[in-house]
Amino acid sequence: MDSSTSPSPTVSQRDQCMVEGQVFQIYNYFIHNPGNQLGMLQLQRDKHIAFLTKALRQLGPSFCTLDANRPWLCYWILHSIALLGESVDDELENDAIDFLSRCQDPNGGYGGGPGQMPHLATTYAAVNSLLTLGSDKSLSSINRHNLYQFFLRMKDASGGFRMHDAGEVDVRACYTAISVASVLNILDHELVQNVGNYISSCQTYEGGIAGEPGSEAHGGYTFCGLATMILIDEVHRLDLTSLIDWVVFRQGVECGFQGRTNKLVDGCYSFWQGGTCALLQALDPFISAKFVQDAVERGDYSTDSSETATTSDLTEHCLDGTSSQVDETCHSTHQGQVDGCDQVDFSSIGFNFLKECGGIGPLYHSMALQQYILLCCQVLDGGFRDKPGKMRDYYHTCYCLSGLSTCQYSLSKNAASPPLPRALSGPYSNLLEPIHPLYNIVLDRYHEAHDFFSRS
Ligand SMILES: CC(C)=CCC/C(C)=C/CC/C(C)=C/COP(=O)(O)OP(=O)(O)O
Ligand SMILES: [Zn+2]
Fold this sequence. Notes:
There is one protein chain. By secondary structure, the chain is mainly α. Helix content is 52%, strand content 1%. It has 21 helices and two strands. Helix 4 packs parallel to helix 20 (394-408). It is globular. The termini are far apart. Farnesyl diphosphate binds at residues 121, 124, 172, 175-176, 218, 220-221, 224, 259-260, 263, 266, 272.
């Protein structure tokens, strides 16, 4: 064909080739240097800590860069350091608490900097940063009474939340409000009312969840929507079968995840999509039971006790000894089978979720994802990136590490179980701290915060 008449590749096709080319080169090296496999898969822990600590120092002491994203920078950096099993020194900790306190609005919520309008996204980032710092000074700096008033003010008639006064209503806003209210133990029926209607209306024909009704399903919003539905005890209202179908097909040949259909893979989706898979994995006993119930309702199984399988046999089989844990978490997911299920105790949902049993193993190729993160996203001098050819940044460092941690614990029975060596790609020194998958906070910091806010 005459090249002048052949269609030229689109930018995204060229990008795709570049990524595939670089991934291919990395794999080629990997395959032809088997002796070096462990070395190439080594997490450059010290380099990452140095990269992150330097950034935190450059932000302080007054965090005076001109940026409305400063609470996010705090969260991405502090959470990454915590995932790597490190903590910051007292001076940095005090600077961060003072700075975040100055971002707190007198009427509740946190802005992007001192004196800036409070915003749900920066509120989530500021609160998660303070929980990650974890000291009494840090936790008691959060004004929960004013925060609750701010959340009520952001509540929209649709059931969703606005990101800020007169701002947009979307699934991100629902997640950030509900996640913070849940972890601070201020979640109640007034905040929860109709949130489930709003999130359900954002699940698309593909199975994933969009940012708002009528938009395209996307990994970031899917994590936010699913986590929110779990935290408000309404996950049964989503079509979980099609959600699983959608998310598992988002892992590409490069081994990383893409955020949406026909887009490029990107390291940050290791958490948004990998975290979605982890939540679904923990919900497996409930999903299996629902699957059986639906099959029986369709007439695929007989409920006649003389037949080989009955509803209760199959449900019992699917729950396989975990039913008490499921009952504790998924009150209404059992559609009235649990006594008192109309009295949802929002304060215990996040905590009880950790007891869930992910007996089925990961829903994605966890070893391959770890290889994508370590081989293609890790910058050997410290930090992580979207993909080869891109620059490292704190956002991708945070979400590549969060995704890596999720992979490493993906074979563990529940949050209290130790990690299994065979779940780990690379040497054992790669092991990160586990996270609470609903909030994306390191697990022991979550427990400290949970104790603190259960007392007060
Ligand atoms: C807690 C919180 C605030 C969560 C935010 C969740 C999140 C990451 C949402 C994604 C937003 C979005 C549509 C990105 C698409 O960017 P793109 O078009 O550049 O990327 P793509 O090509 O990969 O889709
Ligand atoms: Zn990204």
